């Protein structure tokens, strides 16, 4: 665990880096202390790339304390640009004619080198004195990763300074405000749902500069959805049309200037369109596995539930709750009854999807018949199945407390349950469910009215003296 003091220090450091003001210059150049006249010229870096053994009299500490920072060159009428401000300290020596300063972009492998030469007469007079050299004419890009070296001329082995440096990015308020590459533009969009096209208009970006626009799915990064479109800087029309397959909460519009390390802006206008996320439910009849995989990252709790007909409420099935920020949710050995559904709960609310409601998979049925003081319960199913039955007292809409022993039944068989007169009433139910699967919906036949010995109807057959009402959201046939 990071201590509170360290966390506060990190926050202050990050805040300072984002809010740091970049020093301004109007001209770049070279300066040397001690009144020494020095001049610079571009170099390929090749002639000084091979080192020589240093004279015995030359200390390896002749070069000291290189410091790097960023400056912003702003000239009226022109865009601002970023430059490296490189400072180094050199102890003058008769064996040293000058310095070579090089920068290598670790992103693009491009290098820039400059030779710094001292006036010989003045430098000989100050032999052994320390001179500070400052050079700020190496232009860099936003967020560039730079490797800077400072060598003597001639290049003596083991007499060298080097340092890696990261240029500020667009999160720095000063850079974000004044550097053109950070002017990522502004979006206006229109959705044609019939043609599945998003039209994007872009404004407020650098003139005469190409601009890229794409659709992407935002996970940890924004993943491509098709090819990106190019808006040509020289064209007057600054709009593109992008096709999509489905409007999802993570579908975003992203745009950026066609320059290295350009800042990108994103617009995710469909964040509240979560309904499409719940459609991706798949059932495998071979493994009896019910699975759902989110098309977008979403904080959701998933439950299996039993749909109630009386109020369209879906009652959670015990031990079926799962959390899914981004990965697949699976339930093994699932009953394919039409009333078994999946419930998705987020901060915005709950949604229920019933994958077996359309009769595409076989559903089992429970029937009852009453003769005298007994109730016969039997099940029908197109597949082999095992069931359990009990008499229960429905204390609440979705709660039924057992008032007798469990009975096991197979498809095609029946079980007889003895009912006393006290057990007959509006709150007493016969409840049955599958026991050969891990997740099953319990069905109830309630409002039991019993007929006792000798009670018959006009046709002379024993009275089916029990009527029942199935508490179901779907016809049980």
Largest sheet: 6 strands, antiparallel
How many DSSP helices?
Answer: 3
Count of extended strands? 35
Principal-axes geometry comes out as elongated
Query: Which spans have pLDDT < 50 for at least 5 consecutive residues?
Result: 4-17, 452-477
N-to-C terminal Cα separation, in Å?
Answer: 60 Å
Radius of gyration: 39 Å
Percent of residues in helical segments? under 10%
Estimate what percentage of residues fall within beta strands. Answer: 35-45%
How would you state the average pLDDT, rounded?
82
Structural class by helix and strand composition: mainly beta
Question: Secondary-structure blueprint of this entry?
Answer:
Blueprint: H1 4-19, E1 24-25, E2 30-32, E3 38-43, E4 63-73, E5 81-91, E6 98-105, E7 111-118, H2 120-125, E8 130-140, E9 145-153, E10 160-166, H3 173-178, E11 184-192, E12 197-205, E13 211-218, E14 222-224, E15 229-231, E16 239-243, E17 251-257, E18 264-267, E19 281-284, E20 289-292, E21 300-307, E22 314-316, E23 322-324, E24 329-331, E25 340-346, E26 349-353, E27 365-371, E28 374-380, E29 386-394, E30 400-402, E31 407-410, E32 414-418, E33 428-434, E34 443-446, E35 469-470
Parallel strand pairs: 1-4
Antiparallel strand pairs: 2-8, 3-7, 4-5, 5-8, 6-7, 6-9, 9-10, 11-12, 12-16, 13-14, 13-15, 13-17, 17-18, 19-20, 20-24, 21-22, 21-23, 21-25, 25-26, 27-28, 28-32, 29-30, 29-31, 29-33, 33-34, 34-35
């Amino acid at each position: 665990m990071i201590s509170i003091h360290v966390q506060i220090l990190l926050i202050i450091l990050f805040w300072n880096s984002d809010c740091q003001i970049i020093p301004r210059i109007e001209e770049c150049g070279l300066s040397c202390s001690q009144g020494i006249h020095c001049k610079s010229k571009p170099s390929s870096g090749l002639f000084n790339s091979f080192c020589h053994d240093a004279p015995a009299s030359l200390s390896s500490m002749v070069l000291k304390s290189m410091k790097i920072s960023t400056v912003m060159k702003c000239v009226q009428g022109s865009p601002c640009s970023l430059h490296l401000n490189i400072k180094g300290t050199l102890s003058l020596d008769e064996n040293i004619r000058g310095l070579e300063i090089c920068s290598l972009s670790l992103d693009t492998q491009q290098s820039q080198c400059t030779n710094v030469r001292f006036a010989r007469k003045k430098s000989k007079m100050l032999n052994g004195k320390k001179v500070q050299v400052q050079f700020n004419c190496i232009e860099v890009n936003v967020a560039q990763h730079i490797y800077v070296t400072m060598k003597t001329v001639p290049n003596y082995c083991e007499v060298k300074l080097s340092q890696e440096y990261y240029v500020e990015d667009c999160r720095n308020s000063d850079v974000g405000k004044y550097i053109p590459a950070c002017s990522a533009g502004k979006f206006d969009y229109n959705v044609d749902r019939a043609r599945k096209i998003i039209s994007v208009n872009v404004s407020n970006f650098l003139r005469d500069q190409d601009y890229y626009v794409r659709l992407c799915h935002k996970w940890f990064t924004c993943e491509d959805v098709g090819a990106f479109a190019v808006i040509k800087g020289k064209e007057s029309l600054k709009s593109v049309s992008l096709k999509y397959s489905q409007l999802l909460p993570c579908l975003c519009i992203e745009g950026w200037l066609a320059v290295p390390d350009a800042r990108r802006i994103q617009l995710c206008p469909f964040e509240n369109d979560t309904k499409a996320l719940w459609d991706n439910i798949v059932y495998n009849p071979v493994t009896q596995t019910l699975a759902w995989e989110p098309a977008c990252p979403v904080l959701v709790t998933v439950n299996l539930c039993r749909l109630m007909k009386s109020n369209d409420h879906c009652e959670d099935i015990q031990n079926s709750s799962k959390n899914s920020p981004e990965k697949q949710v699976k339930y093994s050995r699932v009953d394919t009854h039409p009333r078994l559904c999946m419930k998705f709960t987020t901060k915005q609310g709950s949604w229920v999807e019933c994958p077996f409601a359309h009769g595409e998979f076989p559903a089992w049925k429970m029937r009852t018949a009453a003769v005298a003081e007994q109730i016969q319960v039997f099940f029908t199913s197109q597949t082999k199945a095992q069931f359990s039955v009990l008499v229960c007292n429905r204390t609440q809409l979705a709660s039924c407390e057992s008032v007798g022993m469990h009975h096991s039944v197979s498809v095609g068989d029946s079980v007889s349950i003895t009912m006393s007169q006290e057990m007959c009433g509006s709150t007493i139910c016969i409840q049955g469910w599958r026991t050969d699967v891990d997740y099953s919906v319990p069905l109830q036949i309630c409002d039991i009215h019993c007929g006792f010995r000798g009670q018959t109807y006009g046709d002379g057959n024993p009275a089916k003296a029990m009527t029942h009402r199935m508490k179901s959201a779907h016809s049980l046939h």
